[in-house]
Design a protein that fits this description.
Layout (H helix, E strand, L loop, with lengths): L2 H9 L6 H15 L5 E4 L3 E4 L6 H10 L12 H14 L14 H4 L4 H9 L3 H10 L5 E4 L3 E4 L15 H10 L4 E4 L8 E3 L6 E4 L13 E6 L5 E6 L3 H4 L13
Parallel strand pairs: 1-3, 4-5, 5-7
Antiparallel strand pairs: 2-8, 3-4, 6-7, 8-9
Helix pairs in contact: 1-4, 2-4, 2-7
Length: 254
């Protein structure tokens, strides 16, 4: 595998061949199987929220300083997931991919990723290769033992995944000796939002003008070696601003 060549190829807007994508997915699975469900990460680090298939905005995110749900809703879920897999393969110790609720076989058949793979490859093989990788993605990360970041936790296990409650968050942080919980999943128009006055829970959203129509800004949250925080905001790219078309008419933000 020539990872640098493949990275350049995808950044230029081209797809890997079906065989190349299969090889990449198998390679990354071997890396991911060694990681924990709660993956330890050392600062400095940049936290990114949902991307949702907005490839050009992901490229701008990298330029801004930087990853959330990777697929569905945007027009370029395949390119987004492919470039993230390539970067994970090329720099395995420097990028941590967390599984979001859209990284599932069921939701990708509803929200567009399955159809996108069919359209771009002419069959469902690419979708199968990618969704097999979903099973290996880590569920959360803990930064320097004090910051917990997650994208997707079952509501049965975590009652504040979709509806955070200050008492539950305070208890969780106290029991686990945490300073902050970072989450994604929920669109916030301002890109980043501390959910309570004590700032024990923050939502990070990294898909600007979500679904090409919501008008929101996006953000990334960086921690330096001293765990000092810096928020960087960014807006959509011109390429994404020009993308308009029929969207899947599902009103609920899964």
């Amino acid at each position: 595998m020539d990872l640098d060549l493949w990275i350049s190829k995808v950044k230029e807007g081209n797809h890997l061949s079906e065989d190349e994508l299969q090889l990449l997915c198998e390679y990354v699975k071997e890396i991911l199987i060694e990681e924990s469900n709660v993956q330890p990460v050392n600062s400095p680090v940049t936290v990114c929220g949902d991307i949702h298939g907005q490839f050009h905005d992901l490229m701008k995110l990298f330029q801004t300083g930087g990853h959330g749900d990777f697929v569905d809703r945007g027009y370029n879920s395949l390119e987004v997931f492919t470039i993230l897999l390539l970067l994970k393969a090329r720099y395995p110790a420097n990028i941590t991919l967390l599984r979001g609720n859209h990284e599932s076989r069921q939701l990708t058949q509803v929200y567009g990723f399955y159809d996108e793979c069919q359209r771009k490859y002419g069959n469902a093989n690419a979708w199968r290769y990618c969704t097999d990788v979903f099973d290996y993605l880590t569920l959360s990360a803990i930064i320097d033992g004090t910051i917990f970041f997650y994208l997707r936790i079952s509501g049965a296990l975590c009652p504040w995944w979709s509806s955070p409650d200050i008492r539950t968050v305070d208890q969780f942080n106290h029991i686990n000796n945490l300073d902050l919980v970072c989450r994604a999943h929920q669109l916030v128009q301002e890109g980043l939002k501390y959910m309570f006055q004590d700032k024990g829970l923050v939502t990070v959203w990294s898909a600007p003008n979500y679904c090409y129509r919501c008008g929101n800004v996006a953000s990334i949250l960086s921690f330096n070696e001293n765990m000092e925080r810096e928020v960087k905001f960014f807006t959509e790219t011109e390429e994404n601003n020009q993308m308009r078309g029929p969207r899947t008419g599902v009103p609920y933000f899964l």
